[in-house]
Design brief:
The strands form 4 sheets. This protein has a 5-stranded antiparallel β-sheet. A 4-stranded mixed β-sheet has the order 4-5-6-13. Strands 10-11-12 form a 3-stranded antiparallel β-sheet, with no helix packed on it. By secondary structure, it is of the alpha+beta class. The longest helix is centred in the first third of the chain and has 28 residues, at 2-29. The protein folds into 2 domains: 1-30; 40-231, no CATH class. The protein contains 6 helices and 14 strands. Residues 2-39 have low confidence and may be disordered. It is globular, with a radius of gyration of 23 Å. Strand 2 and strand 3 (60-63) form a beta hairpin. It starts with a helix and ends with a helix.
Length: 232
């Protein structure tokens, strides 16, 4: 009798383990490996030798810091412009403002530099508005600032607020330095206007907006769609 009771206990315990394993597999199968995978030790180097850490978000690979290069990836220099009250930006010429105060925030680029081929390291590019949106949704949405600002395993936007420069504002062209981040997308949304994403320390959500192409904003780079690269 005791033997039968022990046998039954073993049977039910084995059945429980099988069911638990089966249910765990079912739950895990609903979450793709791409959604869960993050690469924290990947790095990319630009033409100037600046090193950037990268993070995989879904099937995108993003730089975790703002671009700091002063040259296109073919070696050609980007025309420099001073961040001062006499700032003058020729039309449709790619230009850069070197952040000489603290290069931790990266440099600022006008949109004409953004759309020049080769601003990002080889194999990388300036993300479109859709690519920014995809990344933000993967991290929980526009108002999930815990992930968007995470310094350990996120995209880390809060520590990269380099402000912006508006060359048409003669009195005070520099705004938001160390308080607001502005990041170009590659998406043109109208005459002389392109889309960018903005996040301030006082904001509860990241926002998409538009700015004149002559303005100077920060840039993040993204790697070509990883799933596409694997299939090519």
């Amino acid at each position: 009798m005791q033997h039968r009771k022990t046998h039954n206990h073993i049977y039910y315990l084995s059945l429980f383990v099988v069911l638990l394993t089966f249910n765990s597999c079912k739950i895990q199968s609903n979450v793709s490996s791409e959604d869960k995978q993050s690469i924290f030790d990947s790095t990319v180097v630009d033409i100037d030798g600046n090193i950037y850490h990268a993070i995989q978000i879904g099937n995108q690979l993003w730089m975790r810091s703002n671009l700091r290069t002063s040259r296109y990836n073919n070696g050609a220099s980007i025309r420099k412009s001073p961040a001062s009250n006499n700032l003058s930006t020729p039309k449709e010429v790619g230009m850069i403002i070197i952040n000489s105060i603290n290069n931790h925030y990266g440099n600022l680029y006008n949109y004409y530099a953004v759309i020049e081929e080769g601003l990002c390291p080889s194999g990388w590019h300036v993300p479109s508005a859709d690519e920014w949106s995809t990344m933000i949704q993967k991290l929980g949405g526009e108002c999930n600032l815990g992930e968007l600002s995470n310094t350990n395993n996120g995209i880390d936007l809060y520590n990269e607020m380099g402000g912006m420069v508006n060359p048409e504002n003669i009195i005070d062209p520099i705004s938001g330095y160390e308080e607001t981040g502005y990041w170009w997308t590659s998406s043109n949304i109208g005459r002389n206007t392109a889309a960018f994403y903005q996040l301030s320390k006082s904001d509860s959500c990241i926002q998409k907006s538009g700015a004149k192409e002559s303005n100077f904003l920060s840039v993040r780079c993204v790697k070509k769609n990883i799933s596409e690269r694997k299939s090519n």
